[in-house]
């Protein structure tokens, strides 16, 4: 079964990218369905951007196969570029051109002309609040304004699939929230989206995510499912000497991880321990704790259990 026969927009098997002896992406398998926001979550250097560049046809895989919108990549990369949009992590438009000039240039690149070109430029300027900025040089815009312009150019040709590489890394929290609302508007309009991020709260907004570490996929699925299946319960502790408690617990069998969040210590306890609260209350180091309670897991807990210390 191929992506052309189904509602799958991206299908990759055994994807590998090596730079000399370094495996930036190492055996990545992916299946991304139409009509969703699919996120790559992981720290800098984990292979997110390299994977995305292979999916867009900008990098040739060392090993493995990729099919995007029914087209083989990189063989059909030229045909694919008219069906996808790509917003890079770094602002890549022309700072010495105005908003309108950048949009006109990109419209030409995508083959838009005549009345259709004018219509689409007006539509994206209106949607992304750029009409009043159309004569401003891109190099003199704020981070949030540049972000809106970059998104406007990426969707100018109405792509079926949009790739966004850490699109909110340089903007304030309010701009981030507004940007994500715009992404869900695009999903409602029929666009599928692949996004990379290292923000946990952003990853929770995705329909599905892949957690990457050292070029390998450690987990894959809907955030709520990953939280339910992560193999640990979460307990928070309040009280004095939280740093000492943490140090002792990290050497305790059955403890996956422990991290302080403000006035609370967040502890991940293996699901094999039936009553994690009683287990922690019975530990001598927690004597004097004012509160020990089980809490809802979050995506950071999933990340910890799937990578790094949680896998040691």
Describe the structure in your own words.
This protein has 312 residues and is an alpha/beta fold. Helix content is 31%, strand content 29%. It folds into 2 domains: 219 residues, Rossmann fold (3-Layer(aba) Sandwich); 66 residues, 2-Layer Sandwich (Alpha-Beta Plaits), CATH 3.30.70. It contains 11 helices and 14 strands. The strands form 3 sheets. A 6-stranded mixed sheet has the order 6-7-8-3-9-10, sandwiched between helices. The chain has a 4-stranded antiparallel sheet with strand order 2-1-4-5. It has a 4-stranded antiparallel sheet with strand order 12-13-11-14, with helices on both faces. It is elongated, with a radius of gyration of 23 Å. InterPro entries: AAA+_ATPase (IPR003593), ABC_transporter-like_ATP-bd (IPR003439), ABC_transporter-like_CS (IPR017871), P-loop_NTPase (IPR027417).
Query: How far apart lie the N and C ends?
Result: 37 Å
Number of discrete domains: 2
Number of helices: 11
- What is the CATH H-level superfamily of the largest domain? P-loop containing nucleotide triphosphate hydrolases
Radius of gyration: 23 Å
The CATH topology of the largest domain comes to Rossmann fold
CATH architecture of the largest domain: 3-Layer(aba) Sandwich
InterPro entries: AAA+_ATPase, ABC_transporter-like_ATP-bd, ABC_transporter-like_CS, P-loop_NTPase
Domain ABC transporter: 10-239
Pfam family, one: ABC_tran
Protein name: ABC transporter ATP-binding protein
